[in-house]
Amino acid sequence: MSNPAAKARSIDLHDAGPSARGIGRYRLLALVLAGVVGLSVVPFFGVNDSVLLTMSTIFMWIILSSSWNFISGFTGYVDFGHGVFFGVGGYVTGILVAKAGLPFAPTVPLAALFSAVLALIIGYPLLRLRGVYFSIAMLGLFLAIRELTLIAKPLTAGAQGLILPSEVDRTFFYYLFFIGAVLVVSLAWWLRRSQFGLSLLAIKDDEYGAEARGVNTTVLKLTVFCLSAAITGSVGACWAYEVTFIDPGIMFRDSFLINVAIMATLGGLGTVWGPVIGSVVFLLVRDTLWANQGNSFLVVFGVFLIVLVLFMPEGIVGTIQRGERTVLGRLIRRLRHRGSSHVDLSHPTVSPAPTRIVTND
User: Fold this and answer.
1) Cα(165)–Cα(194) distance, rounded to whole angstroms?
2) 179 falls in which pLDDT band (50, 70, 90)?
3) pTM for this structure?
4) Distance CA 124, CA 307 (A)
């Protein structure tokens, strides 16, 4: 015989779930909108250029880690040579501004287009590779393009570099990267909920199974690879104009490959907010350790990253959302379950009595 009270509690928990999730989404949306509005008026409060430079750098890395997350987090194709598009975008703008005399604005879409075309050309053969083979191939491409820019001196000026005529306006670059970060995160939010994004996640889970279900994996992988390359190339173009000097060592930095992968992984691969949170945490922790630990900050920072990976292999957002495979994730889920059960059970809802239908029969 079933217990009516237990039945009432189970019904209440079942019915309260969607409404509670809906309230949580509205609160998150309100929090995000408040954050966007607050960040959009920061330059009006008289902050100095140092603060604007720090915040615009954080926005820039949010764009870069999010674009890396599109190909590596959603499809599982870990791109260790993604910095090649950053360097190519920077050199497209550098050459067009410094040598052709074009203004900055029209060079950004050209840099994005050139990066996307390059991704289309190299992506068609390389995306047929899987796992570590794709990662190594992209790393080899990164090194090859960097050496090519050193050799092509008539076009790139080699190791001497190119000087771009630019006006240092921190407010302009603050809004440039801030708007870019908002657009890219919005794109990730749409991608996570669209059929296109779900197909990419299906490729990550089981590419053969996705192909068997009729998903055109080649077209989807190429599309998101070109999209990611175009975003990264446009950021490289903007950054080259901001620093006013570029050479192969600056535009094709090895640290770029490491930083962008750590930020996205730290926050949570395949999530919307993972690259955002990962970029903020990474930059704040790195700069804080660098300021306090001096030359030994890399040792402390390395230990910090090892501990994070051990206890949160799903990343910060991944641990909170689906971290049942980690000790910390299971603890968070247990605490959240206790909280929701306490709220629901304190206000039990009694099910209405069934209506008896009386007939003449």
Assistant:
1) 42
2) very high
3) 0.82
4) 38
